[in-house]
Description:
Radius of gyration: 20 Å
CATH class: Alpha Beta
Structural class: alpha/beta
Mean pLDDT: 94
CATH superfamily: Alpha/Beta hydrolase fold, catalytic domain
Number of domains: 1
Strand content: 5-15%
Largest sheet: 7 strands, mixed
Amino acid sequence: MKRVSSLLLLLLATLCLHAQTVNRLYSKAYGDSTKPAIIFLHGGPGYNSVSFELSTAQKLAGKGYYVIVYDQRGCGRSKNFPGAKFTLKENLSDIDVIYEHYHIKKAALIGHSWGGTLATFYTYDHPDRVSKLVLLSSPISYPDAFKTILHNCTEVYKKRNDTANLRYMDMLAHMDTTSLAYAGYLFIHASNCGLYTPAASSKERDEILKTMSADTLSPLLKENDIIPVRGIYDDIHYTTLNTGSLLDEMNAKHVWVFGIYGNEDGLFDKTQWDDIATHTGKNNFALVNGSSHNVFIDQQKAFINLVISIMNS
């Protein structure tokens, strides 16, 4: 009897925790729940899903999919997590909550940037729950991405004859490359150097950005929360990660892995793209012309068509 009571208490505690997490996690679904499910995992750590939600979620759902977006704990509109450590385990558990809340048995995961890393860990743990894993502008090797950012920013500052920032690049080159400060400084310089932006915009992209900037959620487009960043860093030192071996193991288990990247994304170089294609398979890797880090904004039609092709494969 005592054992039954203990099990009931454990079940009630689990259900209570689940309900609390659902209420604290911001999420939104688009489209028909009977259609194939796609869950979008945003980048960061510390960013949010607003850019994808305002630009692409509804349009993708209109192609016949059940698209779900959510803000990871501590990010964007998911702030109320007292006592949370913002660990990888907590973040993976939150994905379980999304599955359960929307009654999803299997879904395609589209992971943008850091979101691709999070999606990789989830797929590795739950291959039976993931129909497709789509790495969207997502590093496999973070050290390689940081080296590329440092190189590309240095070249930009040389062209600008910006001696002050070149001194910063030299300082960064001598920092601890595994530190959170190193990563943070590099991301700031990447933005300053336009590494996230295509060289030439398009009418489609300009219209998307105009619509996004007019929305009441637009302030969140510039928000990046440091607390979840520190949580992930303290837990797994994400700056040192290389998920190539995980992807290879998943491939051996016949898990579908795909890559979508922009050919003007300053976080990557040809060596990295070739390495990523090795892990996804060349036929499952796409390099989108005229696009940088946010492929779903820079070349939205091409992105949606690629997702449709992946979902139909």
